[in-house]
Every structure is written in C-alpha cells, then in structure tokens.
Design brief:
The chain has helices at 35-40, 48-72, 98-110, 129-132, 147-151, 176-186, 212-215; strands at residues 2-6, 16-24, 79-82, 114-115, 120-122, 152-154, 162-170, 191-200, 202-205, 208-211. With 216 residues, it is α/β, with parallel strands linked by helices. The chain has a single domain, classed as 3-Layer(aba) Sandwich (Rossmann fold). Helix 2 (48-72) crosses helix 3 (98-110).
Amino acid sequence: MNSFIIVKNEFLKQDTVAYFHYDYIGFGHEGNPDFINHLKNQFGSTDILILKNAVNQLKKVLKEDFCEIKKLNNNKKLTVCVVPRAKSEDYYSEYQKLFKKTISNVVDEIGEFVNGTNYIIRHTNTRTTHLNRSGYGGDGEMPYIGITKSTCNISKDVLDKDILLVDDIYTLDINIDEDAIQALLDNGAKSVIFYAVAKTVKTKNKNTYFDDYVIF
C-alpha cells in the first residue's frame, strides 16, 4: 500500500491523508489492475465468472489494506463510506454495484469498522467522467463544487465520525473525490481519510502527458 496527500483546492478546504494500492496505468496494459474495470460492469454485459474473480481480487486487497490503515491510524474506530457511482443508485443493476457490496462484506467480515457504505447515496445522475470523451458519459453534469451535496443524500450518521472514504480509482484534477471528502466534513464528520484501490498515473507519449484512465 502507498500513501499520498490530496492537496486542498477549490473543491476541498484542507489537505487529506490518502492511500492507494495499485498504479492505474490504463486498461489492458501489463500490470494494470483491470479487475477494477470489470467490477464497474459499465454496460451490464461482463461475464459472471469474470465478475466473481474481480470480487475475489478486490476482497484480498481490501482486507490487507483496511487492516494496515487501521494500524497506521492508531486503531481508531473508522466508519467506511463509499464514493457513489456517477448515476443515481437505482440506475444500476445489482451486478453493477459489486464494488460497494464487496466493500460492505469486507467491513462486516473484519468487524473492526463501522459499516457506512450506504451513508452516501446518489439520487441524481451526473456525467460519467471517464467515459465522457468517448461519448458514453450519459446525462448529468461534470464535477462542480458541491456536486456531492447537490446530487446525493448524506446520512446524519456521519456526524462526529472518523471516516474512511473509499473509491475505486483516484484521478488528479477530476475532483469527485475531493468534493465527496468536503461534503462529509460539511455534514459534520470529525475527520476523513481517503483510500482508492488504484491511483491513475501520467504516461508520457510523444512529449505530452495524458491520463489513460480518462481516455481508455
């Protein structure tokens, strides 16, 4: 597991400690954690065996990293929340919600965290940022300051809680994660730590830098 700092910006009022497990270098690239994309099951057509394998890979990583994060934070009682997908909760089938469901199951199995995986529920569609350039972003708006509070219901149970906020992939300058962190703090969370299974890296190509996650 690796650590970094999410630096404050117009979406986020304070620096935030963050962790990630894998470098995300682009779907299909050697060594990339493609199972994350399989779990998205973006078009609802991913083979069930591929989904099962992806769930098992995610479980292994989460169990390892969550326990390490707890130790690094003085065994503090953390409430695990999940950054919601771009569309409203009822937009997705159960086979497109496996990322959050797996996190919930892992939290319950470990037993040393509070399960807050349903504390942030999106009620209004936003644009799917990583598919927007290819024309599959769908309806809704791109990230703007306060988009989480505008398009999600946030449980009152976040009040005075130390939150571990989880997402699948962190990409700098998208600001969905930054906005979600700030939304939790604005709703009374005592503190927020961030964790992503993977963090997008910049790849050099023909003297320019591009984000493989955004354009794949």
